[in-house]
Write a structure and sequence with these properties.
This protein is an all-alpha fold and about 90 residues long. It is built from four helices and no strands. The radius of gyration is 20 Å and the shape is elongated.
């Protein structure tokens, strides 16, 4: 089939260097929780907490990474991502 379409075999080679920027991160990689939460757009509290947990385990910078989160991380993420005027923030106190 490849021959009929004129497709040639091209060997795949890994990149020879890592792009500059944050080590281990791809260019354009989201590193702040506000942008990450906005992109995921959680629709309820459970989705918000899951989004925050995912961010801290996989997306945060190496110095911010956590294996688990608690109330303090959720409240902080709420303040950073939703702002101080969010109506649901009072439930977190």
């Amino acid at each position: 089939m490849r021959e009929k379409l004129g497709i040639k075999d091209v060997p795949l080679t890994p990149p020879t260097s890592i792009p500059s920027g944050v080590p281990g991160k791809l260019p354009g990689h989201i590193t702040d929780i506000k942008t990450f939460v906005a992109g995921k757009a959680p629709t309820n509290d459970n989705e918000f907490v899951a989004t925050v947990a995912y961010y801290y385990q996989f997306e945060a910078s190496d110095s911010e990474r956590k294996d688990s989160i608690g109330k303090d991380e959720v409240v902080d993420a709420c303040r950073k991502s939703l702002g101080n005027n969010h109506r649901d923030q009072s439930r977190l106190s």
